[in-house]
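A protein record pairs a chain with a discrete description of its three-dimensional fold. The shape at a given residue is found from the number at the same position. Here is what such a record looks like in full:
>
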Amino acid sequence: MNHKEHKRGLRVLTWITAGLAAVALVSGALGGCSIQTVEAIPTPTRTRVPTSTPLPTFTPSPTFTPTPAFTPTPTPWPANVNPLTGEVMADPGLLDRVPVAIKISNWPGQYVRPQAGINSADLIYEHYNEGWFASRWTAIYLGQDPARVGPVRSGRLIDLHLPAIYRAVLGCSGFSNGVLALVKNSDLYPDRVASPSVGVGAPVFYRDYSRDVPLEHTMYTSPALLREWAAERGVSGRQELEGMVFSEDPTVEGQPASYIRIPYRSLDAEWRYDEASERYLRWSDGAAHTDVLDGQQLSVANVVVLYVPHWDTDIVEEPHSGALSIEFALWDSNRAVIFRDGVRLDAFWQHWEREDMLTLTDEQGTPIPLKVGNTFFEVIPTEGVEIVVEP
């Protein structure tokens, strides 16, 4: 078997195992194994699902919307343009490095907010966590390097897909046993995934005890620490990241959209368009969502809602409640909604091969550009979550 065939085989194996998630393993814990450090680290106390919040009784079925079966031919970006934001870099050398994907906690709000380093991310993906009640984030870093990022939490099945799309190194606090088995059987392992579950501890990950919160909400890292770890394993340098399209002004007409609300079951995520900055600002559960590093409210050039089929797997993610891991069918194509410049643009997302860039097009497959700048992706099921949009 030649290298190309071997690589294709790995990709197919990864898609099949991640897509079906037919791994009947019982999870040991959300945070994975203990961190390898020179000092003893206490065992985290799990934050349980509040008993006052009933878990949903439905399980969305995997459904797909027919869309164009092709991906636009990407146009190479100039060497000084960040391919994930469309921004011209004052220091193009910052692009000569591997992107980093970091798993960030977003619930419970009183323990994890304000998070650190979120305003520095090029891209952030928000998605349902097990139990279908609140959300967790995966943030992608290339153009900026915050001093620290966190609280860092454990990876989910969506993190089998995102690092491949963005050629990234994944950093997270651990995996449940079932997800770990899939990660170890994927092309991410061993050189593109750093986690205590695979034996990576301090100094890549460290604890910050300055806040009175449960131990599981005290772990932090940084893009620099993860890149240093990856470089020791031969993973470094500029990656092929062509495929995203940007423009200063919208290229198609849309409908006014100054307010967006994503009603997760135990979290209201709101975005309000700010005319002065021409960006969307984030509120969570009615409060301005800020970054502890700069004190500024999270703001983005684009908010993109991705309608992605979700379903429960056989993997027990949360042993206290028995909540199951959720699979995210982030392959092929489905509906999307782009919000930029205070307008709504209906679109489709496209992702046909494992290492393809996720792109946004109209129904003919013509790319719809994002606004130059950072983007926040809201990953929601194809049914069961009704977003609210106001002019």
About this structure: The domain at 3-35+69-390 is CATH 3.50.90.10 (YerB-like fold). The mean pLDDT is 86. The two ends are 57 Å apart (CA to CA).
